[in-house]
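note to self — DONT lose this again. spent like an hour looking for the file last time. sequence + predicted structure for the chain T wanted, 279 res
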Amino acid sequence: MDTPLAGRDPRRRDLLPAGLLVVLVGTQIAYPLTSGTARDAVTVAVVLLSAGTALLHAAMTRGVRYAAGFVVIVSGIGLAAEAVGTATGIPFGAYEYADGRIGPELFDVPLVVPLAWTGGLYPIWVVAGMLCPVAAARIAATAVGAVGWDLFLDPQLVADGQWRWAVTDSGLPGLAEIPGTNYLGWLGVAAVMAGALTVWERSATRSERTGVPVLMFLWTWLGSALAHAVFLGLPYSAAYGGVALGILGVPLLVRLVRDATGRASGQDRRTVGPVAWRG
């Protein structure tokens, strides 16, 4: 088994990824305030920071070997799917990336794109694991969560011209420029990733230090809904993404409230119990 980087002190394991998460949030807030090449730079920075936060948390809590396997699985499958997708139109539909705007490319796919899969899927995978103890349910929840994330991602970056679709009139109401096949492709690719991660999970000890990926998830869900509705002029993606990612987000909030209430009740019992006994 691999050893977490922060050793035996579990509190230290969240410090560095939490700090990186703060930088990520600040960078994402800057996105609506920029345009042109500056916005392209912010886009790349957001991808690198999200992947870095995810992988640093994985390494700190579950070990470098686990983190390395995670990025190989998710970014590797992501690159393969994107390369096949740009060449054949399968599994997402026919599309092409803008030339040279967000860095070097491999197989006509910008190299930051596979890293975006890693940064975006990690918090969804962790939250799905918190909510779904059964492997099959976790795989399904991860796939659905990935589609919810893409309902924010695709409209935002299509509006920014980062890629364009060959068919632009077969999407959801209000998002006709993104074909429905895209979301089916995301569902299938994310399910494959989650299936491979289910096997990889056996290589590392389980960690209960989920605070950073939970915050990443909540920021992606609620922050994106707000940004799309208010700052980016994308009300339809705000609604679709908010509802779809809420399939995981609402149960997560219920669990967080329940756990917090349970801890508070436990503290009350520990405080009041001895006083009542002494009286």
